[in-house]
């Protein structure tokens, strides 16, 4: 799938050195939206789109990073690393070097070549794939290694502190710890996780609405504030509810009238979404795909109606999928307000499903979507 030979020859031609090659996947979240910062549950899968990094040492103290995707090279001085990002793609890889240096590693000079087929900026986490693959490559050059959850935390810090994007731990965690043909139920409170098999007759069809999602836009922080305000009301009666993860639907029955109506709606989504996510993992473990599909549908409409985190186009994409042969479940995935839907589809029907969904969506919205037929793949590792 991701043949390292092409990147190896790009690296050799440019840097005249033999590289070690690493790969880290993008991801899609099957269920569990806006639950991460409430210390709840998410259930992503790594996908067969990935970023590759080729790395070799240098003796001149320079760090030279080349991205084949951007056809561009950037040079840094290993002895004078930057303190902050520069709003450039190189923020992600150099941020990894800076963060590892901050943890006490001596970062040497190196050459790195990058190439990836995770669509950039589509909500499939090309950024996490890039951080994780860089961290693996650089740690191997340094001669160090971290347990998976620690590696994921390091990469999350790169994105939060160096790049300046306020993401949770999910993307980096699944890129590190994903497993072929499995989804991963992650407890965002303590990073414990459970793998649940996705049967091999099931495809992950990812449909990009082409409507831009923006975590930095006003809606995301507003939703977050509204759900946290609901949690504060519950905590005022029942201490020991620091996060909505600890709240129940009965709490909303008792004290929902003290909340602003929007806060109550947001909290109802988050609390019920946590229950659905755990239930979906149990259903997957039992091979009950119909139940997984039912929970995904419920999750979508909770996200759309209670959380008001969807958009017209995403609702249309979910609706248009409903009567297509092979559909198991469909919902909007990711931070919301656009982005991609995830469709679990019978493998044999997946190509026709993707074609038909694409043409229906284009006819209805006048937007040509990108539709990818994927499967759950393994986490980051060395390739050669
Ligand atoms: P997403 O993670 O959903 O793809 P982000 O905006 O978080 O979207 O991250 C996308 C950015 O990550 C790109 O604009 C680019 O700066 C960086 N990036 C991802 N993959 C590569 C790559 N192969 N080469 C260089 N930069 C990359
Ligand atoms: Mg990202």
Tell me about this structure.
By secondary structure, the protein is an alpha+beta fold. It has a domain at 4-198 and 379-383: 2-Layer Sandwich (Ribosomal Protein S5, domain 2). Helices cover 42% and strands 22% of the residues. The chain contains eleven helices and twelve strands. The protein has helices at 4-15, 91-102, 126-142, 148-163, 170-177, 219-237, 249-255, 261-286, 289-306, 312-321, 350-365; strands spanning 20-31, 41-57, 62-67, 72-77, 110-116, 182-187, 193-197, 202-208, 327-332, 340-346, 370-374, 381-382. Strands 1, 2, 3, 4, 5, 6, 7 and 12 form an eight-stranded mixed sheet that branches. Strands 9-10-8-11 form a four-stranded antiparallel sheet. The two termini are 13 Å apart. The structure holds adenosine-5'-diphosphate and magnesium ion. Residues 51, 67, 69-70, 89, 92, 114-116, 120-127, 130 line the site of adenosine-5'-diphosphate. Adenosine-5'-diphosphate is lined by residues 51, 67, 69-70, 89, 92, 114-116, 120-127, 130.
């Amino acid at each position: 799938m991701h043949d390292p030979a092409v990147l190896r020859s790009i690296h050799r031609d440019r840097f005249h050195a033999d590289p070690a090659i690493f790969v880290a996947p993008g991801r899609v979240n099957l269920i569990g939206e806006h639950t991460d910062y409430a210390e709840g549950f998410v259930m992503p899968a790594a996908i067969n789109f990935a970023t590759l990094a080729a790395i070799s040492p240098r003796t001149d103290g320079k760090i030279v990073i080349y991205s084949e995707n951007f056809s561009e090279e950037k040079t840094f001085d290993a002895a004078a690393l930057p303190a902050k990002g520069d709003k450039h793609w190189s923020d992600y890889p150099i941020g990894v070097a800076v963060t590892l240096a901050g943890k006490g590693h001596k970062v040497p000079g190196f050459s790195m070549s990058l190439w990836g087929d995770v669509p950039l900026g589509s909500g499939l986490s090309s950024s996490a794939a890039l951080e994780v693959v860089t961290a693996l490559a650089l740690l191997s050059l340094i001669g160090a290694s971290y347990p998976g959850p620690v590696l994921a935390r390091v990469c999350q810090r790169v994105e939060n502190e160096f790049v300046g994007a306020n993401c949770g731990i999910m993307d980096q965690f699944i890129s590190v710890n994903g497993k072929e043909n499995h989804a991963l139920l992650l407890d965002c409170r303590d990073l414990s996780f459970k793998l649940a098999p996705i049967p091999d007759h099931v495809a992950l069809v990812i449909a990009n609405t082409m409507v831009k999602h923006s975590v930095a836009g006003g809606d995301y922080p507003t939703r977050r504030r509204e759900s946290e305000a609901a949690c504060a009301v519950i905590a005022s009666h029942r201490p020991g509810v620091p996060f909505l993860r600890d709240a129940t639907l009965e709490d909303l029955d008792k004290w929902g009238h003290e909340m602003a109506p929007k806060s109550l709606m947001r909290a109802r989504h988050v609390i019920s979404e946590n229950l659905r996510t755990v239930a979906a993992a149990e259903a997957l473990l039992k091979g009950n795909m119909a139940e997984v599909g039912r929970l995904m549908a419920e999750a979508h409409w909770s996200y759309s109606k209670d959380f008001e985190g969807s958009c017209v186009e995403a609702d249309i994409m979910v609706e248009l999928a409903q009567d297509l042969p092979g559909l198991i479940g469909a919902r909007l995935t990711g931070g919301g307000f656009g982005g991609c839907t995830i469709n679990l589809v019978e493998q044999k029907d997946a190509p026709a499903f993707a074609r038909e969904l694409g043409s229906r969506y284009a006819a209805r919205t006048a937007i040509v979507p990108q539709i990818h037929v994927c499967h759950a793949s393994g986490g980051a590792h060395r390739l050669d």
